[in-house]
């Protein structure tokens, strides 16, 4: 996660981050966001990073003179029904920051206020049913977290750690992230494009079990991809029916969705392992190096070699 917009935050001295803590003190969502950022602030010193915490009522009542570069509204999904009474003032204050967003139930509250209209949004799958109709224009994805321009969202829970560590790497480099990973005993940081484990089941499982089954087959067969006809046969529908499901619910063809799934897995392997580029291509179902490189470049805008060099450079 290093969009150009986010990279601008790294230029701030000091970078001021505010976490609006609307959940329980011992909740995984809260500690997952707070601990990595607190450790980064300790490593970097107050001249580079300042992390502050406010309760919802204190944040709503703060004088406008306080200035933060990034504000995140954080609450565990179990707190979703306990909306802060000053929510409108809190949302307005969040939106006054250059970058802002929510984690866990905070995403739901922002979406219901209409603040995330038009933004790709990572909402906890368990809260899909709680979204008000006013949030229809937010673009909900099954991913762990999303950065869409100046708006950041994370589904919470264990993904909060991945989100915070990815943010640390984007802002301060892989070296700082590595120190925090070691201290927290984190072996691997999941990327933003990885999916919530049960998000597809939550969105489509009851009404569209065939779609869920098809995607599960794709995720289980990355190294030796199945054909669209094979997938359709295995889930018990025609190819035409399968293509119609993918178009209606995922806005993609099965073949395109499958290709992007394999390429995202390849990017993850390039970033997180020492496998050679040829090995990564083969592990993701590409027998031709040129096809792998071309498809990777079309999706991500850089080649597998450039992706690996970026990792080695600590970007």
Automatic annotation (TrEMBL):
<dbReference type="InterPro" id="IPR029062">
    <property type="entry name" value="Class_I_gatase-like"/>
</dbReference>
<keyword id="KW-0804">Transcription</keyword>
<keyword id="KW-0238">DNA-binding</keyword>
<dbReference type="GO" id="GO:0003700">
    <property type="term" value="F:DNA-binding transcription factor activity"/>
</dbReference>
<keyword id="KW-0805">Transcription regulation</keyword>
<dbReference type="InterPro" id="IPR050204">
    <property type="entry name" value="AraC_XylS_family_regulators"/>
</dbReference>
<dbReference type="InterPro" id="IPR018062">
    <property type="entry name" value="HTH_AraC-typ_CS"/>
</dbReference>
<dbReference type="InterPro" id="IPR018060">
    <property type="entry name" value="HTH_AraC"/>
</dbReference>
<feature type="domain" description="HTH araC/xylS-type">
    <location>
        <begin position="212"/>
        <end position="310"/>
    </location>
</feature>
<dbReference type="GO" id="GO:0043565">
    <property type="term" value="F:sequence-specific DNA binding"/>
</dbReference>
<protein>
    <submittedName>
        <fullName>Helix-turn-helix domain-containing protein</fullName>
    </submittedName>
</protein>
<dbReference type="Pfam" id="PF12833">
    <property type="entry name" value="HTH_18"/>
</dbReference>
<dbReference type="InterPro" id="IPR009057">
    <property type="entry name" value="Homeodomain-like_sf"/>
</dbReference>
């Amino acid at each position: 996660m290093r969009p150009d917009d986010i990279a601008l935050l790294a230029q701030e001295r000091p970078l001021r981050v505010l976490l609006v803590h609307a959940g329980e003190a011992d909740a995984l969502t809260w500690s997952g966001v707070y601990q990595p950022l607190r450790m980064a602030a300790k490593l970097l010193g107050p001249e580079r990073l300042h992390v502050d915490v406010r309760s919802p009522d204190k944040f709503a009542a703060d004088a406008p003179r306080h200035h933060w570069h990034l504000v995140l509204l954080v609450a565990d999904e179990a707190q979703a029904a306990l909306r802060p009474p000053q929510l409108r003032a809190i949302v307005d204050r969040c939106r006054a920051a250059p970058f802002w967003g929510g984690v866990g139930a905070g995403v739901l509250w922002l979406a219901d206020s209409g603040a995330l209209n038009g933004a790709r949004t990572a909402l906890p799958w368990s809260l899909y049913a709680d979204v008000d109709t006013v949030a229809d224009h937010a673009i909900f994805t099954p991913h762990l977290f999303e950065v869409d321009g100046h708006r950041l969202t994370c589904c919470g829970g264990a993904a909060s750690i991945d989100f915070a560590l990815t943010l640390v790497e984007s802002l301060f480099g892989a070296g700082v992230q590595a120190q925090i990973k070691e201290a927290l005993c984190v072996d691997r940081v999941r990327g933003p494009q990885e999916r919530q484990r049960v998000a597809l089941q939550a969105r489509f499982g009851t009404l569209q079990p065939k779609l869920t089954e098809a995607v599960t087959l794709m995720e289980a067969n990355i190294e030796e991809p199945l054909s669209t006809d094979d997938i359709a046969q295995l889930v018990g529908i025609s190819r035409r029916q399968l293509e119609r499901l993918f178009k209606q619910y995922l806005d993609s063809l099965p073949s395109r969705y499958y290709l992007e799934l394999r390429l995202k897995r390849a990017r993850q392997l390039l970033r997180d392992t020492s496998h050679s580029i040829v090995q990564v291509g083969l592990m993701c179902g590409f027998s031709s190096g040129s096809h792998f490189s071309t498809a990777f470049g079309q999706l991500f805008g850089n080649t597998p070699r450039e992706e690996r060099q970026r990792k080695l450079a600590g970007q």
